[in-house]
Write a structure and sequence with these properties.
By secondary structure, this protein is α+β, with helices and mostly antiparallel strands. Among the domains are: about 80 residues, no CATH class; about 270 residues, Immunoglobulin-like; about 150 residues, Golgi alpha-mannosidase II (Immunoglobulin-like, Sandwich). The protein is about 20% helix and about 25% strand. It has 21 helices and 55 strands. Strands 6, 7, 8, 9, 10, 11, 14, 16, 19 and 20 form a ten-stranded antiparallel β-sheet that branches. α17 packs parallel to α18. It is globular, with a radius of gyration of 31 Å. The relative contact order is 0.08.
Amino acid sequence: MLSRRAAGRRLSTRQYRIKFHRPTPCAIPCDEGLPINIGEAVGPMWKGESGTKRSNAPNPVGRSTAEIEADLLVPVGESLHRIEFFIFEQVVGIVYYAGLSALTFGRNAAVSNNSYFHCFALPGISCNCAYFRRQRNFKPTISPYSILPQSVSVSGSGFHAEIQCGKGRSLLKMTLQNLQVGAVRLIIDEKEPLRERFRPLQALNGEPVTSDFISTEIGSDMAVLKVAANKEVVVMFKPLRLDMFVDKNLVMSFNGDGRFNFETFKEKPKELEDNAEPKPLTLFNRLFDYVQTSVLKWLKPLQSEQNPADEASENKNYEQNQGVAYDRDGNPINDADHPLEEGGGVEQSAHEEEDTDGLWTEHFHSFTDSKPYGPSSVAADISFIGFRHVFGLPEHADSLVLRDTNQTDPYRLYNLDVFQYEVDSPMALYGAAPYMIAHSAKATVGAFWLNSAEGWFDVSYEPDDSSLLKNLFSRFFANDKLPVAKTHWMFETGSVDIFFLFGPKPDDIFRQYSTLTGVNPLPPYFALGKHVSRWNFIDMNDVRQTDAGYDLHDIPYDVIWLDIEHTYGKRYFTWDPIKFSNPTEMIRNISAKGRKMVAVIDPHIKKDENWDLYQEALEKDYYVKDVNNRVYEGWCWPGAAVYLDFLNPEVRKWYANKYQFSEYKGSTEDLYVWNDMNEPSVFSGPEVSMPRDNIHFGGLEHREVHNVYGLFHHMSTFDGLYQRSNGKKRPFVLTRSFFIGSQRYANVWTGDNAAQWSHLRISNPMVLSLGIAGFPFTGADIGGFFGNPDDELIVRWYQVGIFHSFFRVHSELNTRRREPWFFSEQTKALLRDIVRLRYSLLPYWYTGFYEHTKNGWPIVRPMWTEFPTDTALFNEEKQFMIGRCLMARPVTEPGESSVHVYLPDEKSEWYDWFTHIPIVGPGVVQVATPLEKIPLFVRGGCIVPIKERMRRSSGLSHQDPFTLIMALNKDGTFANGTLYLDDGDSYEYKNGKYLYQYFVYSGDKKSGSLMSTTMHPNANYNTNAWIEKIVILGLQFYPTDVHVFRADYVPKKLNFVFDNQKMMLTIRKPEVPYLFLACNIVTVILKWRNGLSSLVMRKSENIDCIMSVVLEKCQKIFIHRDYSSGMAVRFQTKLPPELVGRVR
């Protein structure tokens, strides 16, 4: 065990945070100094009563001396929390002001190497996390695992076999499934386990659809499984190995390096049962541990240097005190050498003998992880052959491309409440998605592993590795010298459940992953607007004044947020009876302007015997248990708190019902929910989270389900909001913790960042990583959660934030107010213009979200997804695409007066969004970036719908007209785009109440036309919206006349303005009602000096394409790309005689 002094310096796999949590505001202002009566000031602070005494509120601090003495006579296990609560409040009162000043003012870095233990697992450095150390050091020369040939069988879509490790070891069972979506699924588990391993199947979007193998070849030492016309899986029997091929090219390999290792459950040896006495849990060490890990960091670091020899001696002595050493099978071992079992060939590079440290028990500070089922970790290597770039593994504040971890910390996935996280770090954050994508100019592939336990991931890039191919027959690969991205996945427990996605293109990967795990449902329209938040708006009057301030300064916004102080003493689903005495009226005043409100609801429940919700869940046995099967109690915002067990389906149903208007008093249909602190965060727990040996529904240990706790929480919230409207209104839920599949229920943000340029810079790769991993609705707290941004930083952060799908300004309690009018007049004006730009683009954003629900594409996407063969873009994370049409390269460094922008695609023209001036690519251009300048470009060949009329909120603009920005391609011959429209609020779109329009411009240097048709003819939505203006960029001729043809085929002359310097045509008020959305096709025709014009015919009932007729040739071929089917429709027609006379 590490001493507390050594713990701060020792590098370890466990990230134990030393953090002063954001305190509840005390009864006096923070700048008035330390009060004389500490008890009076601190008591209300930790009760959450904000200093207001109420006779009917529980008062855990204001107890008499006799009551405290009576507590001391009760067994510690039953009353310890009450004593600790009293003493804890007094201690916090003493350190609060010193800590708070360090917390919020003048702080450069809140997380340091002393705050978290890192794990550099390099030679000569020992890691403190036992399973990780064993797995990372497991480097056999030959894998000990092999398939028993006699066990192999194939049935339809499944390949089945048994796996043996060495000689006489426990058997594993293996299934390889062929999935219809273009992927295979590998499942490996114990054949006869002592207990079932948890598999987070709720992360999937239903049971995947399988497809029979096209052909199978089973031999004595291998099997060849043809999964699709150009895709194969080769299964090697001894040693176990799977290789995936696309077009005869090896792209992925499982266990190619032989590092697959599966620790099976074992009975705990009796010797350990006799010697395993838990560490005494005293009031002193609990209190001391909390103060050390959560408070004293802000006064003075407790850690001091320790001699490495003393540290090693301390660890050795601790292990000797545990009695006999045991191997991973639970058998006693001695100092004699142990020969390897036949077929094993295991070479432990880091240890001469097997590592038995921490198999059954681990300690840190006063925390004991009992591990009643012993070691059960699982690990494997996955190699991506032919790839130099691997992406994914959110959430990390790191680069878009995963770094090589040979000489650094590995990436870690373990959902934690991280306080002002480090940037450029692989440390664990709030969410976990064990999913990687590998991309090259030739292919894109991916793999994700359904495992909700803690995970560590190594990545290494090899220039070439022909050894990886040496055991394969030459007919299986095209090149034996390829770059290889090697990855090593290590989990504390769980089974193997890996999905290999064959791609081979980015759009294939997005479709495959979203089909398996689900898409972000179409959000309500308001959710794409500006979100105004802080911890905390003080009261109803503060909310009212803030709302009015946005109107006064003519700045639109859509949602105002309430943090934890709006509740009655941190009892969620309640309102502070004084500060928020009439929540229904408050919400209705907001919604009268088309705006909404969001309130925070965390998963912990205040322990209050007088609170009906607490008592109801207690009586129903709905709380998580500790290792002794008692209700687990931790510390969080309310003080003593218990945690709902969302693994229990009945708890989820019960919790969802709490969102009913009859249960959640004061709520309305315009109140939505923010689920925070759901990693789960436990101030008094290890790593500010829940002990791993806590017990969940079904006897599951917390270590097995940790990373899905948040998923089950916001899943319950989503269901509750859905049910409260009887399935009529779309929910909006924000979550901090997430897992694969969370995108079906909530959007996420990047957590507690800081008002620093480094945090602004890292927000882009974080959002991009989340997007390609299936989370398209993400963003960062604009301006930083901690600290106070200056004018330059807040402007630049807004310029970044409007291009993230989730656009929220949020900050902590002690920061200065962030509303735009609290900055200079110049800054306020700039912020107003930036917000208005976001609102003008909402139709484009909304269309992007609809298309995401159909194809799984992220809205904010890395450059390589749109230009997959341009290798110059594979590392790019400063500039990115918004949809397929807009490219942004916002400024993220202070004082940056210009930026370099790379314009890809030699066939594309790029136009500056603001000047409309074309910029010819490909290549790098330098763009001046004064503070008001945002480098934003529209891609040639695109049509972008926008709205230029500004309203107080997006909901008030629903019937406003549209403007079409048409950016022609380099030849000036083509542009297309789409627009989706519905009521923005309900699920009526699922009943066909929507419009999905396709716009296309086609022409040459003499003629051209803009036409519109509906993509889904059976859909219909009544709207008064219309086309107010059309702007065409990049014309290559000088138009003299513009006409519009409507359903009667009679052309009508239109007014227009042409800028011959920019070659830009503006058509105002084309008088096309209902947004070209009638059943008949409508087209705007441009007439040129040569007198040619065009005509559009009525759409045929059985041919879904556009037919245009040009008089000069009497026939024309028009190609219409049908996005719904991906097919190009080619149609040729002649001008009908009855229409000839109509043409002038």
